[in-house]
Design a protein that fits this description.
Layout lengths: L5 H24 L8 H14 L5 H24 L3 H21 L3 H15 L6 H19 L9
Helix pairs in contact: 1-5, 1-6, 2-3, 3-4, 3-5, 4-5
């Protein structure tokens, strides 16, 4: 485990909470798909291909958007050199603010695209991955629990 000073730990925890919150918002807005949990979307893609191929486009587009975000984060990180963290975090911030504006304008699909790209780009902030994703998962679970989402019909 990497040890960091307190301000860096606080930043990592704050970003993880932001990622978890963003994923929870995306999950609630995207009919049960994720904007940062790509293994969940990969599973849904496989299930949709097997059961309802017409629905496979949704997780496929989310996975593609995440890859675009990762690529964008990598380019920004490479161009920024020693200032890669602030540069990538500025990109993520711009994408999240833009997604908020698109949601307010009623452009749901565009909002989801920017959310998934932001979460992809966030992987290039080079924060301790274990800390980031553990806290993101916890924040997402707590947000979902707080919303008390009822189970789908036919499930227990």
């Amino acid at each position: 485990m990497n040890r960091s000073d307190r301000p860096r730990q606080a930043l990592a925890i704050g970003l993880a909470a932001l990622a978890g919150f963003t994923d929870a918002v995306g999950f609630l807005s995207a009919d049960g798909y994720f904007v940062s949990f790509m293994s969940g979307n990969t599973t849904r893609l496989g299930v949709n291909i097997a059961r309802a191929p017409e629905l496979a486009i949704i997780p496929a587009l989310l996975l593609g958007g995440f890859v675009v975000g990762v690529a964008g984060g990598a380019v920004i990180a490479a161009l920024a050199g020693g200032r890669r963290k602030p540069a990538v975090l500025a990109l993520v911030t711009a994408l999240l603010f833009s997604a908020t504006a698109l949601r307010l304008l009623g452009l749901h699909a565009a909002m989801l695209a920017l959310l998934v790209m932001a979460m992809g780009a966030l992987t290039f902030s080079h924060l301790p991955a274990a800390t980031l994703w553990l806290a993101a998962g916890w924040a997402a679970l707590m947000t979902l629990a707080a919303t008390r989402i009822p189970p789908e019909r036919g499930t227990t």
